[in-house]
C-alpha cells in the first residue's frame, strides 16, 4: 500500500520527526502513529492530540510555536486545526506533500479550563480509584473457584453444549435469546442457531445476507454502521448470528433496555466493558482449538442455555460495573470512562491478533438486535447530535455509546437490525452513526 511521509513537530519543541501512513488511513490512525514518537506525548491519549496542518520550511533546531509563526509562513498555509478524526489523510494533505517542509504541528496539551470553573481532577487521579475497583471486579469474578470463572473455563474448553430440543427430529439445538423461563418448557428448536458457520442461502443466485453485509463492511472501511431491515421472521437474527460465527464481536439485544436516563452513553460503555472483560478472560485461557468465534457468539446469543444456575455472566459483571460507576467518588466523567473502554478494547484487539494469527484481521462487530424496541423508548427525551437538534429516543445515545468502543472507525462496525424500522428510525441511525446522512450511501 502506497504510504506518504508526514513531517511533524510538537508545539514548543525543536525536534522534527516523521511518520509514514497510507493516504486512505484516517486522522485517528495518524494520531496513534504520532503519539509514541516524542516523550511529551507519552502520558497523552492519541485521541486527545490536536493536529494543526501547516506548511513551514524545515530548519534545524528551531523551536516552533504557532503564535510565533511569521506572516510569510502563515501565507504559505494558515494553521488549520484538523478536528474530524474520521476523515482520511488524503482529504487533508491531498496526493503529495512538499519536501523539506513541516506538515503538522502537534499540540499534546488539553484545552484550558475557564478560571471561574473549578478545575476537575486530572484524568489519571480521577480514574485511579475506578481502575482499582475494576481490578477488584476482575479478581472477584475470574479467580479460580468462582462460579462464573469455573463456568467460563468449562465453556471455553468445550465441555458445555446447547441442549437439544424435544421434538421429532433429534439433534436440533434448543436455546433462547433473552429468557430462560419459557425456554425450559418449550420443545421448539432454535433453527437460527443450526450450523451458524454455513450462511443461509435461499436460492443459488442470491448472496446470503450475512455474506453481503460482511463484504460491505470490508469494502467501506470508514463506515461504522450497517442496518438490517425486514419483517418479522425474515431472517435478520439468523444473518447476524452467521456474521458473529465468522467474525469476532458482541451481541446485544434491544428488547431489554436499561431504565436509566441519566447517562445512557456511559451505561452503554459499561455494557461493552463487561463483555470485553469476559472476552479477555476467555482468550487468556489460550484454547483456540475449542474457543472459536461461533462459540463466543453462542455464549452471547443464549447465555443462560448452558448452565441453569448461571443465567447470564455478562449481566452479573455489568451490574457490578454499573454499581462502581454510579457509586464512584469523585464521579468519573464519560470521556474518562470512554478512555478506559478504548484501552480495554485495544487490549482485546491485541489478544485477538495473536490468538487468531492464521486469519487476517477484520472489523470487530457490535450487533444490536431488536433495535426497533429502543426506537420506541423515551421518544423526545434525548438530545440529537445532528444539525437539526431534534429530540430523539433512547436509541440515539445508545448508538453513540456503542461507537465509543474505539476512536478509529476502521476498528469496528455497529450492526443494527429490527422489525419495522422505518424512515424515522433510519434517520436516527444515520445521525447517530459515522456514515453520511444520505440514502445513496446506505444503498451502497
TrEMBL record:
Lineage of producing organism: Eukaryota, Fungi, Fungi incertae sedis, Mucoromycota, Mortierellomycotina
InterPro entries associated with the record: Crinkler_N
Cellular localization per UniProt: Host cell; Secreted
Sorted UniProt keywords: Secreted
Full protein name: Crinkler effector protein N-terminal domain-containing protein
GO CC terms, sorted: extracellular region; host cell
Keyword Secreted: yes
Occurrences of domain Crinkler effector protein N-terminal (ranges): 4-106
Amino acid at each position: 500500500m502506497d504510504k506518504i511521509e508526514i513531517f511533524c513537530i510538537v508545539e514548543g519543541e525543536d525536534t522534527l520527526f516523521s511518520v509514514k501512513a497510507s493516504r486512505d488511513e484516517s486522522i485517528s490512525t495518524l494520531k496513534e502513529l504520532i503519539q509514541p514518537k516524542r516523550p511529551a506525548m507519552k502520558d497523552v491519549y492519541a485521541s486527545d492530540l490536536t493536529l494543526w496542518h501547516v506548511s513551514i520550511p524545515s530548519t534545524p533546531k528551531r523551536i516552533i510555536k504557532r503564535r510565533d509563526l511569521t506572516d510569510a509562513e502563515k501565507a504559505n498555509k494558515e494553521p488549520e486545526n484538523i478536528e474530524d478524526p474520521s476523515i482520511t489523510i488524503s482529504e487533508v494533505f491531498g496526493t503529495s506533500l512538499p519536501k523539506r517542509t513541516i506538515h503538522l504541528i502537534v499540540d499534546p496539551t488539553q484545552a484550558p479550563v475557564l478560571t471561574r470553573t473549578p478545575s476537575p481532577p486530572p484524568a489519571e487521579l480521577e480514574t485511579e480509584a475506578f481502575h482499582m475497583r475494576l481490578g477488584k471486579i476482575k479478581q472477584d469474578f475470574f479467580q479460580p473457584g468462582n462460579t462464573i470463572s469455573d463456568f467460563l473455563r468449562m465453556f471455553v474448553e468445550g465441555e458445555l453444549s446447547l441442549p437439544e430440543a424435544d421434538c421429532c427430529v433429534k439433534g436440533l439445538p434448543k436455546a433462547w435469546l433473552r429468557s430462560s423461563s419459557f425456554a425450559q418448557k418449550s420443545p421448539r428448536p432454535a433453527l437460527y442457531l443450526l450450523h451458524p458457520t454455513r450462511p443461509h442461502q435461499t436460492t443459488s443466485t442470491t448472496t446470503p445476507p450475512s455474506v453481503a453485509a460482511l463484504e460491505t463492511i470490508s469494502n467501506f472501511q470508514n463506515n461504522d454502521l450497517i442496518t438490517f431491515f425486514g419483517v418479522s421472521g425474515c431472517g435478520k437474527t439468523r444473518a447476524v448470528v452467521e456474521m458473529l460465527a465468522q467474525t469476532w464481536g458482541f451481541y446485544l439485544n434491544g428488547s431489554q433496555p436499561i431504565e436509566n436516563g441519566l447517562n445512557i452513553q456511559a451505561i452503554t460503555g459499561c455494557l461493552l466493558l463487561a463483555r470485553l472483560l469476559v472476552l479477555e478472560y476467555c482468550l487468556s485461557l489460550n484454547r483456540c482449538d475449542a474457543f472459536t468465534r461461533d462459540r463466543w457468539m453462542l455464549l452471547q446469543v443464549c447465555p443462560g442455555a448452558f448452565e441453569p444456575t448461571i443465567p447470564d455472566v455478562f449481566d452479573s459483571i455489568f451490574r457490578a460495573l454499573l454499581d462502581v460507576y454510579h457509586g464512584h467518588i469523585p464521579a468519573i466523567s464519560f470521556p474518562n470512562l470512554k478512555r478506559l473502554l478504548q484501552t480495554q478494547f485495544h487490549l482485546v484487539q491485541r489478544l485477538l491478533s495473536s490468538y487468531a494469527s492464521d486469519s487476517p484481521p477484520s472489523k470487530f462487530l457490535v450487533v444490536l438486535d431488536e433495535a426497533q424496541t429502543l426506537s420506541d423508548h423515551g421518544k423526545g427525551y434525548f438530545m440529537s447530535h445532528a444539525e437539526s437538534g431534534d429530540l430523539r429516543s433512547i436509541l440515539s445515545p445508545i448508538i453513540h455509546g456503542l461507537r465509543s468502543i474505539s476512536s478509529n472507525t476502521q476498528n469496528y462496525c455497529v450492526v443494527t437490525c429490527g422489525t419495522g424500522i422505518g424512515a424515522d428510525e433510519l434517520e436516527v441511525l444515520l445521525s447517530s452513526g459515522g456514515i453520511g446522512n444520505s440514502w445513496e450511501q446506505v444503498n451502497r
